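User: Could you walk me through two proteins back to back? I'd like the raw sequence and the structure tokens for each, with a short line separating them so I can tell where one ends and the next begins.

Assistant: Of course. Protein one, sequence then structure:
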Amino acid sequence: MFKNLKKPYLIAEISGNHNGSIDKAKKLISLAKENGADCVKIQTYSPDTMTLKSNNEDFLISGGLWDGYNLWDLYDWAQTPFEWHEDLFKFAEKIGITIISTPFDESAVDLLESLNCPFYKVASFELTDIPLIKYIAKTNKPMILSTGMANEDEIEETLDVIKSHGCGEYILLHCVSGYPTPVEQINLNTIKLMQERFNCDVGLSDHTLGNTSAVLSIAYGAKIIEKHFTYKRDEGGPDAEFSMEPDELKDLSE
């Protein structure tokens, strides 16, 4: 699927920037299409499949963008409800843009398979969830895998699993799991190192502000560029502070 790309494949990650509105989700899909994205991505989970509803300190976020949230409330705010998915997939098909998702458990994969999701994205935090990796690989669909929370041995183990369970095509994404990521921490040399170490194509999941890192990644051979996307950062949203706006997406596409 990605072997003969003439330019990097550009994914606009909507995530929770719809702020609980399916109409805004559709607006973001339209804006992604209008401003040059090849693909839009959502996330498929419910708060109850991700965590427990608890205010125990183990379930509270301390510091960073989501300081003070308990995990259940954060996921409840950011989720794209299962019941929206069919409508969003049909809408994307109608306007002519590819839509994919990141599943976070087996029930999410089942839903996405029922909608004929063309390929799957694995989030950095799930790269070491071997049962989930196996389940996705068995769909025989291409996989894009973010590596922001994994070391070399963990990446190697995941690749061994997907190769042995049916996935024939995959791309790794260099990713720094900082939200937002300071530009001085992006270390694009990692793209070349990953290409050599794992003998595969590599892209960039970019949480920096602006397009500098994304554009420079092309010189390192990035096959896919994924960035979070919103209408206006000042409208707020779970990921708004590190998301690109439509004019930035257009500039990156051009």
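----
Protein two, same layout:
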Amino acid sequence: KQLDEQLYDDILVYLQESADLPSVQSYHLLASWVIHTYLMEYFDYSPIIVLLGAPARGKSRLGRALVHASFRGLHLESLAGPHLIRLATDHNATLFFDVKNLGKKLRQEQTLDLLLLRGERGATTPRVTSAGKGPFLDTRYYRLFGPTIIATNEVFDDSAFESRTLCLRMQLSQQQFSFPVTPEMALALRERLTAFRSWHMGECFLSPDSRFRGRMYDI
């Protein structure tokens, strides 16, 4: 327990040194979310973290800090369907999409539904991979569930998207940060989080009480 508490506190410090957020609660939310990515076997839902704001608000920096500390994190620009599908099924990856004009890009790629289904366990998408093998053998079903971060400059007006996301509006900051955000800076945390995952695998966790209902209760 003491090691777990120290790990959590160190994640908080790492995030505080990476971004200037509007409240203390925001740091606790994101620290809990990072830990959540290492225990996905216990979750049926994963809230999509949206970092929203104008340029030079620290969205990309915070997104990199989160994904570098998360389980199998990958920083992407592309929202193409094949990337979402294979990285979820074959890699169980945490994905960070750093995109301008999110709505326009999703319409171009036609991948909104795939992105939304990353938030809930169980959904699959079929793809014909071996047309000559005949019925049932020609199709592979790909999983989509996995932790997701999005940094963007616009509000995406879609009720289904909004109901699956936790949105942090990034503020203009005068704070000078002490280090650049690189994968190497989060390496020690990732090692400890991987050990945390191994140590707690197979345990039973309590389900917290919540005053929320519906999809907000799920996420």
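Strands lie at 48-52, 73-76, 94-98, 124-128, 139-143, 148-152, 165-169.

Let me know if you want the two compared in more detail.
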